[in-house]
Design goal:
CATH architecture of the largest domain: Roll
CATH topology of the largest domain: Ubiquitin-like (UB roll)
Number of domains: 5
Order of helices and strands: HEHEHEEEHEHEEEHHEEEEHHEEEHHEE
CATH class of the largest domain: Alpha Beta
Number of strands: 18
Helix content: 25-40%
Number of helices: 11
């Protein structure tokens, strides 16, 4: 009897979803990001005098769920004159991230985005920041179709860019085409600095183009041209990319980069705060800047990098050195306030060695000069193996872990033969040659 009752309920549900009514009114409420029209288009419904099954309304709501653009999706249908009213009630997703068209160069970005929106209503240049969303795939399919309409036959793929397991962007690429940089133009650059930029850009001419690599090149190769000459506020705008030549699946580009140079500043002075271990006089000796000279921010960062490394060798592994520029616009000068946060001192804990015979392990311990209780030096492992090279076919990995005593770091050296999986169960013990080390210093 119970089985018959369940079957009866199931048949009622199926019968309800099979009911058909014309859609006389469509509504969507609750979104702060999307218009009601965009949501309804994405759901795939439209007003019609033709009968529509209630199951089609349910499927439309499921399409909104699959988009990932909403953290809540509800719907209801009510009888009205001429059929039924369907209303979707949504709440926007919490996180959206940029969409980057890495090597899609055949349309200007604004035109490409507008063309994609015609096909994917919920695309606004950003996408839900979760991999469960189907919007990235829909955008990739749309871009592929748009390119095909313009004679570019290629497969467009999408990859999430992550940081600490969080999605930070979606990268779209044309997979089976080669896009290379043919030349650079720098609009807004003065003649002298334009020439310096041209020289710095030569290393990238002929290389593959994508927006992520270009951004890194601007940051690490082009901006230093300005920052080393006192142009501390120089900034590059969005690249303007045009196809110079197209032969089959190979394209060559002209990349035009607008630049705003700003004023050239001269170095005035600097002050330190927070330092306890090293005196201000010692810290000043790290800085290779002269008052009145063009402010070389690249040199300053190199000097502070060496200071951080030296603090690290003394066991201050959490050292933070943060320069803050203070501009005197009237005189085009800049002074720096440098805050030092030394953190706690960490000492060497226990040294563990695996993968070696007992004699070889004893040999390593004998030559190892970073003793237990001494300030921990994170760079010592590399220096040790520079002085004591491993024989061919042998590798060594190392792991750091918190020691038993407070603020101590235990170190494990794991020796292994190249191409072998190094686990305690499979590891064969290695005998190291008893050669004299190259140097005997720490």
């Amino acid at each position: 009897m119970k089985l018959l009752r369940l079957l009866f309920i199931f048949l009622i549900c199926v019968d309800a979803y099979a009911q058909q009514h014309p859609i006389a009114d469509l509504r969507a409420t609750g979104s702060q990001r999307y218009s009601a029209e965009d949501i309804i288009r994405a759901a795939g419904l439209e007003k019609t005098k033709n009968p529509v099954a209630l199951n089609a309304v349910k499927e439309a709501a499921e399409r909104l769920v699959a988009s990932g653009a909403f953290r809540e999706v509800g719907y209801r249908h009510t009888a009205v004159l001429g059929g039924m009213r369907v209303e979707f009630q949504v709440a926007d997703a919490d996180s959206f991230v940029p969409a980057s068209f890495e090597n899609i160069v055949w349309l200007p970005p604004a035109e490409l985005q507008a063309e994609v929106r015609k096909r994917v209503p919920l695309f606004q240049g950003t996408l839900p920041g979760k991999t469960e969303s189907n919007l990235p795939d829909l955008v990739a399919t749309a871009v592929q179709a748009i390119l095909a309409e313009r004679g570019v036959k290629t497969r467009v793929s999408v990859t999430p860019k992550t940081d600490a397991d969080a999605v930070t962007a979606f990268l779209f690429r044309a997979d089976d085409v080669t896009v290379r940089i043919g030349r650079f133009d720098f609009t807004g650059a003065s003649p002298a600095l334009g020439q310096a930029l041209e020289i710095a850009s030569r290393e990238s001419v002929g290389k593959a183009y994508d927006r992520t690599s270009l951004a890194a090149f601007i940051q690490h190769s082009l901006l230093p041209v300005y920052r080393s000459r006192g142009y501390l506020r120089a900034a590059f705008g969005e690249p303007d990319v045009k196809v110079l030549t197209q032969e089959g699946n190979e394209a060559t580009l002209n990349v035009s980069l607008p630049v705003t140079e700003g004023a050239a500043y001269r170095f005035d002075s600097l002050t330190w705060s927070g330092n306890q271990v090293l005196s201000t006089d010692v810290l000043n000796a790290y800085i290779n800047l002269q008052p009145g000279q063009p402010m070389n921010a690249v040199q300053l960062e190199q000097d502070l990098g060496k200071l951080r490394a030296d603090y690290g060798q003394k066991g201050y592994m959490n050292i933070r050195v943060e320069p803050q520029p203070r501009f005197d616009e009237a005189n085009a000068r800049v002074r720096y306030e440098i805050a030092v946060s030394e953190g706690e001192l960490f000492n060497m804990g226990k040294l563990d060695i695996s993968g070696l015979t007992r004699l070889s392990a004893d040999l390593v311990r004998q030559r190892w000069r970073l003793r237990e209780g001494e300030p921990f030096d994170p760079g010592y492992v590399q220096r040790y193996f520079a002085e004591n090279p491993l024989p061919e076919g042998v590798t060594c990995a190392f792991e750091r872990s918190a020691g038993e005593a407070p603020n101590t770091i235990d170190l494990t050296l794991i020796f292994c033969r190249e191409g072998k999986k190094c686990t305690p169960a499979t590891m064969d013990l290695i005998e190291l040659p008893n050669n004299e080390p190259r140097r005997r210093r720490r």
